[in-house]
Amino acid sequence: MGTRQDRPLIIGGVEYDSRLIIGSGKYKDFEENHAALEASAAEMITVAIRRVNLGQKKEEPSLLDIISPEKYTILPNTAGCYTAEDAVRTCRMAQELLDGHKLVKLEVLGDQKTLYPNVTETLAAAETLVAEDFDVMVYTSDDPLVARRLEEIGCVAVMPLGAPIGSGLGIRNPYNIRMILENAQVPVIVDAGVGTASDASIAMELGCHGVLMNTAIAEAQNPILMASAMRKAVEAGREAYLAGRMPRRLYANASSPVDGTFF
Amino acid sequence: MTLAITVNGKTRTLEAELSLQDLLQDLGMTKGRIAVELNGKIVPRSQFSSQRISNLDSIEIVQAIGGG
């Protein structure tokens, strides 16, 4: 087996140099978020769609004034949606807000405590959104059959969770992620669960095409330094995947030759 | 005749019929990226001035904020 071939990450017809996608939630302020984005070298950033606060001051900058849609790919999410209907509505609003933007992150949640995806509602929403010509990146469980079904529907990326959203527990079922990867013809991006740099590396070493994270950076003691760590972790994991790791052995295998000893 | 409408879940009373554009202006929402839904349907920005607001209309005005 030779070295694995590196292939560019293409989502919705756009090629990305960075395989790290970050969120914009839970930061102290827009400036910290922007600095973390720069340090992460991510080219894509998620946003949520919410009601305008009617009491807000007119001069107050908004997120998209600080994080420019001209410079970064904005990935509007459907966080907080528990039905396919609400998720589809949110995507339509996002599209209008972003001047006809097609790329969305679909997530339909099933339960407030686990924030696990409601798979049946997710499938229904994906069908509608694909029919409406959206490019759908879809948050899902780590079930290989569901991942395959979402790909068949026409989603442009399948994004299984590594662990519950915001839990920082890491990649809890790497074998399922591997099964998803074996079947997938579209990018597989671990979304949710990453807690620290090694978790991102593990996802990438498995062969994932990218990693999406929010809390791991935003809730770090130093978010900007963690953003930089995540950039390196994703790159390191990707290179390790391409290089192909050595086999695991139960017993030792000397690195220095046994022949030629003089004692 | 006064109109009762709902904007982002809150009831408002209007003294007279007006356009969506006028309403947004009154709310100070003319700057920045927003999207508007009227009774569950998106109103494209190009139709803000021609869209009339009627009694019992329900309006949602949204923006992009931080999220994961």
Determine the number of helices of chain B (DSSP H or I, runs of at least 4 residues). 1
- Silhouette of chain A: globular
Strand order of the largest sheet of chain B: 2-1-7-4-5
Distance between the amino and carboxyl termini of chain B: 45 Å
Q: Tell me the radius of gyration of chain A.
A: 20 Å
User: Which CATH architecture of chain B would you pick?
Assistant: Roll
How would you describe this protein?
The complex is a heterodimer of chains A (263) and B (68). Chain A has helices at residues 30-40, 63-66, 84-97, 119-131, 144-153, 174-183, 197-205, 215-218, 223-243; strands spanning 9-11, 14-16, 20-22, 44-51, 73-76, 103-106, 135-140, 157-160, 189-191, 210-213. By secondary structure, chain A is an alpha/beta fold. Chain A is globular, with a radius of gyration of 20 Å. The two termini of chain A are 38 Å apart. The model of chain A has no long low-confidence stretch (mean pLDDT 95). The mean pLDDT of chain B is 93. Chain B contains one helix and seven strands. Chain A binds chain B through residues 23-27, 33, 46-52, 54, 58, 62-65, 74, 76-77, 79, 89, 92-94, 96-98, 165-166, 213-215, 218, and chain B through 7-10, 27-29, 31-37, 40, 42, 44-45, 60-68. β4 (44-51) of chain A pairs antiparallel with β7 of chain B, so a sheet runs across the interface.
